Amino acid sequence: MTDTNLVAASPEGRTRRSWTFTIGAIIVGLHLVIGLSTLFWTPYDPTGMSGGRLEMPSLSHLAGTDRLGRDLFTLIMIGSRIALVVGTGAVIIGGLIGITIGLLAAFASRTLDDILAASLDILIAFPTLLLAMLIVASSDGASLGTAIVAIGIANSAIVARLTRILAKRVLRMDYITAARISGTSWLGVVAIHILPNIWPTLLVNLALQFGLAVIAEASLSYLGLGAPPPNASWGRLLQEAQGTVYTAPFGAIAPGIALVLLVIGINLLADGLRDIGDPTRRRRR
């Protein structure tokens, strides 16, 4: 057994892979529990003035209050739900569009494939946030649904490019030729051979896209292009707190910490999924 395999098989290697995935799952799971709980219960009415203006954190208000006297912890809990909804919706939309276009490009003729590949490269060259801003600005108005669709479309080019590369690699394999000779249709080839082989890598990428979608939504809300009031998006909370950041800094610190923790959790989860789905990477650890 080589030294690399010994490292991969060692308790230290298994522990490294285990804690990365476990910590990520705990952080994301905690946000999920908090977000779902807001559908049934919140400490205070999110639209009501439950305390004085700009109160410091206390037993009554764990994260203090904002400039209107609303409980910040309640608003951050609702912001967790919004972030998860946006991330999930954007990943679904971006995944469906991206995987479809990527598969079409992989099966297309050389000329059409070159055109699609060039188009994807041009879209990827645009920053995700800028592309999402253009889509939101061209719509009827800012809303949570518009933000989800805009972010999903903006992220779909990355998914499409990755799908195209992975699918073309699988199509060069000998067993694809054997499947076609045996009478398997191209749809069957996609369902039986291509998707199962590229899904682990796509899953990791979609997990990373989830984190990017959360950041993009917070950025759009900060600029006033995301979910409108009374939606308590973390980006909107940061925007509202910027005028009082010196007198009541916790109004900006609390939603910022929540945003950073969720993105870190998603990235750790994606890293753990990458280890699980890529045996060669596990051997290199």
Structural notes for this entry:
- This protein is mostly helical and 285 residues long.
- The protein has a single domain (12-38, 71-284), classed as MetI-like (MetI-like fold, Orthogonal Bundle), CATH 1.10.3720.
- The chain has eleven helices and no strands.
- It is elongated.
- The protein starts with a helix and ends with a helix.
Which tags fit this structure?
74% helix; MetI-like fold; mainly alpha; 285 residues; disordered N terminus
Q: Quick one: overall form?
A: elongated
* Annotated CATH architecture: Orthogonal Bundle
End-to-end separation in angstroms reads 15 Å
Report the order of strands and helices.
Answer: HHHHHHHHHHH
Helical content band: over 70%
Biggest beta sheet attributes: none
Q: Residue ranges: pLDDT <50 for 5 or more in a row?
A: 1-10
The tally of domains stands at 1
> What's the name of the CATH homologous superfamily?
MetI-like
Helix tally equals 11
Strand residue percentage: under 5%
Average pLDDT, rounded to a whole number, is 83
Radius of gyration, in Å, reads 22 Å
